[in-house]
């Protein structure tokens, strides 16, 4: 190896190290700022119930912001996946402040949404901007986008291992090389430790009782996981259904969240549905100790699908946690398993089915709940993944492999009748 080769490799290594530190620090700081602001606006809404009456105006503001300033980034997470699969042009940095502001508006006025999408979009916008900053051939955009997804996910949930795997798995494993794996893990931990420097507290969950796996519990776990997969399918279909309905019936995009906000505000004011708006973290925590009504997960699917379909902003993952935890909690009334275990399995399994990321969700379950429940978690995430249909929450996600070939055969068989 010549001196020139060693010099070039060293410079490339230093460049990537710098990029990892910058993306991790800025993405982690952005997520921390977002989490602190989200906690504040949620408290304001809780203390001032009347503010929900402003939901239509908040929706109109969101619609106008994206109509005039965010047309290029309105696809959100789907744009990131599209740019990874077939790079066209750099993601505009304004994606980060736009999704931050509009997600906070959604939560302030009472929309039902999450936070993962916001953190991932901020991370991707920050990471992709590094290409313009460094401008060298060695810094490729695909690696940067994986780093952005990883940093955003790891920092907002406090799960660096799951964040790193999620970024790799969501863009489809076959297109990943060893370099991307190393970068994904490095930036995930950098972003995670950056958030730890801020006064941010992540929600802690626990499964205090994990029985030894028996044949009976094995089959009960499979049965529950099939239901988790079907819930994931319903969530994905609901979100797409409302989005298509609003697009077809209201031509002027800014009016969609305005009309949706009017309907949501009326429903919230006239029915006792406050637990199903916002993030819903208190309900998720409660689900680990108290059985929820059977319809709780259905109401969260309805409110989240309607909110996001109307054009409000935010993520889908925390609502998926809500759906899974409350469904698992309700199942404890008929399934002979500990309530916390069922809630925890639903928490990660519905997420697995809706995002087609069973490995990342299994790792997340281990990070959140511990290794004692590893066998149950892995089984639940795998079964839910195979039972959740061929289309998840991300329309632009690449879907291949045995599962999708099987679904295509089923579709052809049905259509032939």
From TrEMBL:
<feature type="transmembrane region" description="Helical">
    <location>
        <begin position="255"/>
        <end position="273"/>
    </location>
</feature>
<feature type="transmembrane region" description="Helical">
    <location>
        <begin position="144"/>
        <end position="168"/>
    </location>
</feature>
<dbReference type="InterPro" id="IPR001807">
    <property type="entry name" value="ClC"/>
</dbReference>
<protein>
    <submittedName>
        <fullName>H+/Cl-antiporter ClcA</fullName>
    </submittedName>
</protein>
<keyword id="KW-1133">Transmembrane helix</keyword>
<feature type="transmembrane region" description="Helical">
    <location>
        <begin position="49"/>
        <end position="69"/>
    </location>
</feature>
<dbReference type="GO" id="GO:0016020">
    <property type="term" value="C:membrane"/>
</dbReference>
<feature type="transmembrane region" description="Helical">
    <location>
        <begin position="13"/>
        <end position="37"/>
    </location>
</feature>
<feature type="transmembrane region" description="Helical">
    <location>
        <begin position="321"/>
        <end position="354"/>
    </location>
</feature>
<feature type="transmembrane region" description="Helical">
    <location>
        <begin position="374"/>
        <end position="394"/>
    </location>
</feature>
<dbReference type="Pfam" id="PF00654">
    <property type="entry name" value="Voltage_CLC"/>
</dbReference>
<feature type="transmembrane region" description="Helical">
    <location>
        <begin position="212"/>
        <end position="235"/>
    </location>
</feature>
<keyword id="KW-0812">Transmembrane</keyword>
<dbReference type="GO" id="GO:0015108">
    <property type="term" value="F:chloride transmembrane transporter activity"/>
</dbReference>
<feature type="transmembrane region" description="Helical">
    <location>
        <begin position="180"/>
        <end position="200"/>
    </location>
</feature>
<keyword id="KW-0472">Membrane</keyword>
<dbReference type="InterPro" id="IPR050368">
    <property type="entry name" value="ClC-type_chloride_channel"/>
</dbReference>
<dbReference type="InterPro" id="IPR014743">
    <property type="entry name" value="Cl-channel_core"/>
</dbReference>
């Amino acid at each position: 190896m010549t001196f020139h080769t060693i010099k070039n490799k060293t410079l490339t290594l230093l460049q990537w190290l710098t990029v990892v530190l910058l993306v991790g620090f800025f993405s982690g700081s952005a997520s921390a700022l977002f989490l602190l602001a989200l906690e504040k606006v949620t408290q304001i809404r809780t203390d001032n119930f009347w503010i929900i009456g402003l939901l239509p105006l908040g929706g109109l503001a969101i619609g106008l912001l994206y109509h005039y300033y965010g047309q290029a980034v309105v696809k959100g997470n789907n744009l990131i996946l599209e740019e990874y699969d077939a790079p066209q042009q750099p993601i505009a940095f304004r994606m980060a402040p736009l999704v931050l502001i509009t997600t906070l508006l959604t939560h302030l006025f009472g929309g039902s949404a999450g936070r993962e999408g916001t953190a991932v979009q901020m991370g991707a916008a920050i990471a992709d901007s590094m290409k313009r900053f460094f401008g060298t051939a060695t810094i490729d955009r695909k690696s940067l986008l994986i780093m952005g997804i990883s940093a955003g996910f790891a920092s907002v949930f406090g799960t660096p291992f799951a964040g790193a795997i999620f970024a790799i798995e969501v863009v489809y494993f076959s297109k990943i090389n060893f370099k991307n794996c190393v970068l994904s893990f490095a930036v995930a931990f950098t972003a995670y430790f950056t958030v730890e420097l801020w006064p941010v507290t992540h929600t802690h969950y626990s499964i205090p009782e994990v029985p030894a796996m028996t044949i009976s519990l094995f089959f009960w776990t499979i049965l529950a996981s099939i239901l988790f997969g079907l819930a994931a399918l319903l969530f994905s279909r609901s979100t797409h259904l409302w989005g298509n309905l609003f697009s077809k019936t209201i031509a002027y995009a800014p009016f969609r969240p305005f009309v949706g906000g009017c309907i949501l505000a009326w429903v919230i004011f006239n029915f006792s549905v406050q637990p199903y708006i916002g993030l819903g973290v208190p309900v998720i925590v409660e689900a680990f100790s108290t059985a929820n009504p059977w319809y709780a997960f259905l109401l969260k699917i309805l409110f989240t699908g309607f909110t996001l379909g109307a054009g409000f902003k935010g993520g889908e993952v925390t609502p998926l946690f809500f759906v899974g935890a409350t469904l698992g909690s309700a199942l404890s009334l008929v399934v002979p398993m500990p309530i916390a275990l069922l809630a925890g399995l639903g928490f990660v399994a519905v997420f697995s089915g809706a995002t087609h990321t069973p490995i990342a969700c299994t790792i997340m379950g281990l990070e959140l709940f511990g290794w004692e429940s590893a066998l149950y978690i892995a089984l639940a995430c795998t079964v839910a993944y195979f039972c959740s249909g061929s289309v998840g929450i991300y329309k632009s996600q690449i879907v291949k492999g045995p599962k999708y070939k099987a679904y295509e055969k089923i579709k052809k068989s049905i259509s032939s009748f």
